[in-house]
Amino acid sequence: MMCARMFVRASDIPGSTGVQQICYNSLSSLRSFHGISTHRFSRLIETGNITSSISVKHTAGSNQAPLLAKVVGSAGTESLVGNGVDVEDFDVDSLSLNQVSSQKNGSTSAQNGDLILAAVDMGTNSFHMVVVRADKQGRFQLMDTEKEDVRLGSGSSDLSVITPDAEIRALAALKRFKTLAQIRKAEMRVVATSAVREARNRRTFVQRVRDAVGLDVEVLSGTEEACLIYQGVLQALPVFEKTVLVVDIGGGSTEFVLGNRGKPTYATSLKLGHIRLSQQFLSDGPNKKEELKKEQVEELRRHIRVILADSGVIDQVQANEFEVAIGSSGTIESIEQMIHYTVTTTSAPQVVDGQQNKGSLRDREFTADELNQAVKKICKVKTVEQRAKIPGLPEKRADVIVAGAVLLEEIFLALGITKMKVSPYALREGVVVDTLAETLANYKPGVNIRKTSILNLALKFKTDQRMESAQHSAGLAKEILSGLQTCRTGTNECVSDVALLLNDGDADLLEAATSLHYVGMFINHKSYHKHSYYLIKNNEHLLGYSPLEIEILALLARYHRKKVPSQKDEDFAKLPEEVQKKVRAMCAVMRVAVALDRCDSSAIDDVHVFQQTESILLAVVPAIDPTTGKARDVSLEVWAAQHELPYFEKIFKRRSSIIVADEHDLEALDTDAPSVSLSS
């Protein structure tokens, strides 16, 4: 006798506590249990009565932990589960809702222990799919993306029904998504949001998707959606340690999340979406020349203010002060693109955090003033046809951007937001993270997304032992920089004022760039530093870094050998002047550090920095050869590093030299001048 498995969440069973043992005689009685939604279960084909018991268990007091229901029936596994997967291949107690959904909707797993996952977000406005490959530690890399403007919520003013036309568009899109996922051999998880959540015919629609496409749809509650969006954002921006406010404007709803260190402290979803508001208050129809009226916008604003005031969001945000506001999804991204276009076409460079910043290197963020100007420009244009021509604004957003922009402006005012960062990740990436968290026992998402993304890129282009060598050189680079910044004389002067230009963030960039300097060898050893620039600059795996920071990483890799930074290089010349000074200083340190592992053998353990009158002394300590017990020969490394000293001296404005030292030498040097050393 074979068995199949089903999952529900604790929130689906009112009053459930502890571990329950519940018996049923048929699938129909199971489905009627407390009105549990059938979309929460794995696909089961009723081929006969269940002859054995159904055991349901869950964690007491948790409405997030999935419940496990193991159904033992008289039919074979294939007819029960519908995909031919032998349930005996799995450990029942370790399974989860996400794993079952993936097995059910998917095809095969990746080789070498990797997982290939496809997460589908059935939004009110558009459907998105992201396909990723994840290793056993949960580090994932993007393989493919797909998007279709389905407009699932169109045709119903209050999103109360999914129309036949919308259903046809949805089924067609999902079929294409499934085909792409199958080609990628990806396991699928499909989630639906506001349009399906609120539709009276949602059960019929979900069943139609199951019958016509063979996919099971997980309809998220508003709170679940908000929490998953937060998890997605944490994979794109380095804000894990901060208290953040996340705002996600969709077609049917807007989600708000307050979170810190990966845990949402407040999450809610309001029925405020750009499609919903457009259909309720603004001209919405085939007449693209119908003019927008001032009275319509004023009525829209009043409605938004009432909903926000009654929701409790304002009180929650005021009671839990946030450090960073983050926006996600299409509406906010479109507004940022419009603002970004305005900045890049302005003749005068913009000032960001006190520094001039050229448009192409501008962070994905905008201020309240920039948003206000954008909203004025959008509302000033009276017709959809004319709005489609606004520079920087995606044409497909022209009919709904008024509602979305006004909504965002009112949110800024109500919550006191002065600046908002934009996340490229949102719900679908959150679904990936949630699936990995349930699948992998020790997966800890979002803790240090910058270091994780650097490691992912390094692993992707790993060649021979160069990755290990690059990591070692990165450690040496941080030692040298720290030594330059903290070495003092009796007058308490730094070795070089130039070193003080660099802060902790710059030190992290130096370490990251040194870790990646070799990746261009994946293409060819000849001019590999140039290949490294291209691969770093054009790689979408470097999450958590701003466009300016990515440019710095790429340039440091470009200039770690051969030519040094020059105003003749257009990419370097476009950097703000202060950033150019920093890049030169980091480059000087990096060239020496890379040379100190010339043989890719980690022959040098430590670098100590000493000041001698008007000069800098770098004392390198060789590693001990484990076979002989003697210090390793580092003459080639010292020779290579000496060739980099002229540029080092030019940047730090001090004569410099390198010596090989042991503990006795270091003690002698310490009596003459203070030093700083760090273990590599």
UniProtKB/TrEMBL annotation:
Residues 449-606 form the Ppx/GppA phosphatase C-terminal domain. Transmembrane segments: none annotated. Keywords: Hydrolase. Residues 131-437 form the Ppx/GppA phosphatase N-terminal domain. One of its GO terms (molecular function) is hydrolase activity. This is Uncharacterized protein. It comes from Physcomitrium patens (Spreading-leaved earth moss).
